[in-house]
Amino acid sequence: MGGGGTLISVYPEDLTFLFELDKPCYCNLKVVNNSEHHVAFKVKTTSPRKYFVRPNASIVQPWDSCTITITLQAQKEYPPDMQCKDKFLIQSTRVAASTDMDEIPPDTFNKEVDKVIEEMKLKVVYTLPSGSSDDSGITSSGSRSFRSGSDDLAMLKNASMEEIQTIQRLKDERDNTLQQNQQMQRELDVLRRRRSRKSDAGFSLTFAAFAGLIGVLVGLLMSLIFSSPQAAA
């Protein structure tokens, strides 16, 4: 959904940030010029130290659009109940076609009798990357536990290239460690089987020697039995 006036419309009408601790969060805002005139806009916020807005002011040509990237700087803790009271204000007004978008006159948005300045207010919404619908019970003291349930894909979505490379390196190290553990387990299994075979072989030789000795004794006994009647005759 989007909100709009005579000059411009903005999409979406709420600034929604996928909130994660210790990481910057991003939200794109599309500004659409609904008129046949050149329109200048300016973005203001109640918390300028928390947000970077690029561009924070520009000119949109007739029937054209412009995308604004708003960055929430890395936060150290969750807000109470995940509620945000920050507000954004977008001012817009008609300007001459010759106006340089990089050098918009400072008095462009001054309210004068003969100048029409439209104002549009946007609120800020924080959401959790876990996708949990039960956000109402989150407090600033207990909400850190939700960080462990963050979705990996959502985390990578806002990660920088350096962070992605670090994650990949850690995954490779983990895989190498698992492979080493598996190799050690296989070697231990081989040693156990070898020891088992040696034990079986030792038992077999002992049994064979014992059986041979019994055979010899039985043979001697039988020879004595069969030789005794001949001697008596």
TrEMBL record:
Q: Which InterPro entries match?
A: Ig-like_fold (IPR013783), MSP_dom (IPR000535), PapD-like_sf (IPR008962), VAP (IPR016763)
- Residue stretches spanning the membrane: 201-226
Ranges for domain MSP come to: 7-127
Q: Does the keyword RNA-binding apply?
A: no
Name the UniProt key words of this record, in alphabetical order.
Coiled coil, Membrane, Transmembrane, Transmembrane helix
**Coiled coil where?**
153-201
Q: Which GO terms describe its biological process?
A: endoplasmic reticulum membrane organization; endoplasmic reticulum-plasma membrane tethering
Q: Which GO terms describe its cellular component?
A: endoplasmic reticulum membrane; plasma membrane
Q: What Pfam family does this protein match (any one)?
A: Motile_Sperm
Family to which the UniProt record says this protein belongs: Belongs to the VAMP-associated protein (VAP) (TC 9.B.17) family.
Q: What is this protein called?
A: MSP domain-containing protein
Q: Top-down, what is the taxonomic lineage of the species of origin?
A: Eukaryota, Viridiplantae, Streptophyta, Embryophyta, Tracheophyta
